[in-house]
# Entry
Amino acid sequence: MTIPFTRWPDEFARRYREKGYWQDLPLTDILTRHADSDAVAVIDGERRFTYRQLNQAADNLACALQARGIQRGETALVQLGNVAEFYITFFALLKAGIAPVNALFSHQRTELNAYAAQIAPALLIADRDHALFADSAFLPNFCRTHTSVRAVLLRHGEGDQALEAAIDRPAQRFIATPTPADEVAFFQLSGGSTGTPKLIPRTHNDYYYSIRRSNEICAISAATRYLNALPAAHNYAMSSPGSLGVFLAGGCVVLAHDPSATLCFPLIAQHQINVTSLVPPAVSLWLQALAEGANKAQLASLALLQVGGARLSASLAARIPDEIGCQLQQVFGMAEGLVNYTALDDAPERIFNTQGRPMCPDDEVWVADENGNPLPRGEVGRLMTRGPYTFRGYYKSPEHNASAFDENGFYCSGDLIAIDEQGYITVQGREKDQINRGGEKIAAEEIENLLLRHEAIIHAALVSMEDSLLGEKSCAYLVVKAPLRAVAIRRFLREQGVAEFKLPDRVECVDALPLTPVGKVDKKQLRQWLAQRAQA
Ligand code: AMP
Ligand code: DBH
# Structure
């Protein structure tokens, strides 16, 4: 049983192997290579796991899953937050050859159902600490809807369903059976712009390269002590170089449940953290905390701060070295593949003003005009890319793939960028119908579809509005039959079961939505209305 996905054409696969990007090793190698090490791999609150323990825990769980009849080539839906079990589960599934979708902890009913509908999972692993699984309102329904599910394990669950019990029970004669390195290892989540969130198949080969190369650029080593304060399941925190990069190098990952200064500063001091990654709004909050008297000495060990996920302003960037007292690295990446970094030895101007350059010499990146033709260097247009770790198609989405890729397999990310003479990229804007709320991506169509389920809403359009902290927030423009208040809209969406960050920050009721000449909602016009209002 293999999971279908869009493969790289043979001549590309051959070249990526020849050049050593693809090494035909399973991602489990990241952990098993340290199986005999008693160095600490993960710190989660009071709990510590050495590499040996982490590997044993993953073996135990993989063995338990095999005993329950979950087979290689099947899929799993996983929802765990920033806890050690996230990595134990990830490696266990890889060892058993089961491909997970790692939903974000902020996801709710709508997202979980959408992912399950796409992958038909044999297994669900979730957390009783999440509101959805705290009682039995959701789970029985979920299992009834998704009849593919044959096993459920819950963190802090009871009896047969307890994830901890499955992790603690010693494996008997376990033999790892990861999927072949050029097959799907797991699915990454796309920030998306469509009604249903799309899944990105990632192979062992391509993901392993992305992590290995990231480690080189970011100088990750066994001495790295990394604070993981972003959602653990996010591609950035997993692979750029993220926790998996730190495991590969034999370093130590310290988990934080959120990136707040109150939580992170003491953790940095206590665990002598030297690398961490943030999104821009968290940087603002850290700077604010320091300006308000937080103890900068707590950050003394911090050598490198990565910032990415959304555009970092040059002015904020320039404050980091002095005020936080560490080196800045900009990261512009995407779960679909391509990752760009500023180099550690780049001139400060470059680090402050650009989003870096592609990490692989064989990343092909060019800028297209609206007709798909290449633009001269320096001009702003659509980012087009292909390479050894950039996917070739969303899972089971032929229609969307037809527009997301050109005929040569270049992926159009929907970002508007310019590339300078040295190959450095600046992100200038976006063409995709998405709101980037401080690094958290909202597909406008997904929320518009949910809004249209409301009986009083006739038309809905979700657009971004500028925000000084988050960069962007969301505003829903509605045409309604009866007056509706923003709180009622948010309550309605919450009842539909959607992640909190996707709820509109603002609601505007209008008589009609402006249309473009071809009759589509004119979102540009809506954003202008918002900008004018903000100035008024
Ligand atoms: P996702 O699809 O959730 O993986 O999000 C990837 C998208 O995040 C990219 O296509 C960009 O739109 C945005 N992004 C990531 N990093 C940066 C950055 N450093 N600057 C600007 N936008 C970014
Ligand atoms: O925003 C992202 O998706 C992102 C940002 C930085 C990413 O996927 C990454 C680095 O790998």
